[in-house]
Here is the input.
Amino acid sequence: MNKVLRVVAFLFVSAFLILAATSMRDFGVPNDATMDQYFIDNTQAEVGANNVVTAVVFDYRGFDTLGEATVLFTAVIAVLTLFRKRKEDEMFEGEVR
Amino acid sequence: MNDRGMSVIVRTVTRFVYGLIIVFGFYVIMHGHLTPGGGFQGGAIVASAFALLLVSFGAAGIKGKLNKKLLQSLEEIGALAFLGLAFAGLGTAFFYNLLAHGGGFFGAAVPAGPNPGILNAGGLVPLMNWAVGLKVMTGIASIVIVMLIGARKEETE
Amino acid sequence: MSIGSFSFDVTASGQFPYIIAAILVAFGLYALLFKRNLIKMVIGITLIETGVNLFLVMVGYRSGGAAPIYTYANPGQGMVLPTPQALTLTSIVIGLATTALLLSFAIFVHRHYGTLDVRKIKELRG
Here is the structure.
């Protein structure tokens, strides 16, 4: 029963995904490019950088980069915390802290 | 895991190549505002040089040569520098680009249209690239070495 | 190209690239549902994230455009949209953080149970 359920779930979700992909807009014609056209036209005048993607990541949308740096920092601290050395390793299961 | 790492050929080639990979990673970080790249991509390239060292020399070859406190404090310096640069232009807005077109440090004027890049331009963007690059390279290096030592120590117990 | 009565155009136009991204996500879903090794399930999760990142980059394409960089650019050629590329950068870094934590948990499971088989982890109570 478990295997039948997994097969049915897999077929249902992949059919849903492929059907959603066929009802997308045409490839190469974006819907509304007003904001991105503003970024392309005004990057060299306002930010002074040649790379529009870096200007978007660090200047126009810098707050999202701050959130991403926080996620990376949290992941590094979590991995370092999982692998720290405990002093009394043998008695750890019986103790109540 | 083999304590001596991999064979002699791999170790010799690694000794030649890992310096070049680190220099290339620094180039990608530094020219982030002119060519494709930036802080995250260059930091990942330098971290991959460190992972190459770890794979070819084994954990025993790296053990005495690395200071874990130095790696952790460099990562904290990178995170705090990024936050400090965000607060630097707080007089106008939160992430305001203070040094762009200012004429001083990283403040040259950029002509419009296609041009060969000017390194001195960009305002706060190259400084933020360095802060994020430092954070990513030391963070990924810490993760890789802690997972290797943690997985290996429990195998031999 | 036509097979029997079907005929579809195998070029990068229409909706064909989006179908490829959906097939990549379906491969990752297969590896997540039907494999019993923990490391293979982590590979499936990484495949799902790769498919989603590919879809994000493909949304921002403009016909006949080049990369949005002004250094040594062709004068007179349009540029693609830069915002989906910036969001994909964030998504890749978050995928890295998730994969690092998943693999750390896999190391812990192997240390405690001695095996990486998902069915045996459910049966034994260590």
